[in-house]
Amino acid sequence: MATLTAREIELLSSKANSAKEAAYCPYSKFRVGAALLTESGEYFTGANVENASYPVGTCAERVAFGTAVVAGHRQFKAIAVATDISPPASPCGMCRQFMSEFTSRLFPVYMYDKDMNCSVITMGELLPNSFGPEDFRH
User: What is the pTM of this model?
Assistant: First the structure.
């Protein structure tokens, strides 16, 4: 797992918690904020964006990763995800697969609940036996 400084973890948690404010979730009322730290030290945030047609919505984690990738980043250090429930919620299956495209099995996922209590898990634990870019190497 990547070693983060106390300051990096503090910024990740704060940015993920603040990102919840931007969530568009009129149907579920389930706010999610995410903050992603690049290897170069930049932070990208995302919030969930729902749609009346539920499958069309986008999760906070994919918004953060998509924004960072479009900005030219491909190397990431960690992500934090914050919700308004307890215990912390983990990324959904679609987000797990999406994140695995750009991370290693040791990539840390910091999950925060409504009281900012934290659980940390690696991508390898979230998505064991994943399918990824390495499966295309012959």
Answer: 0.94
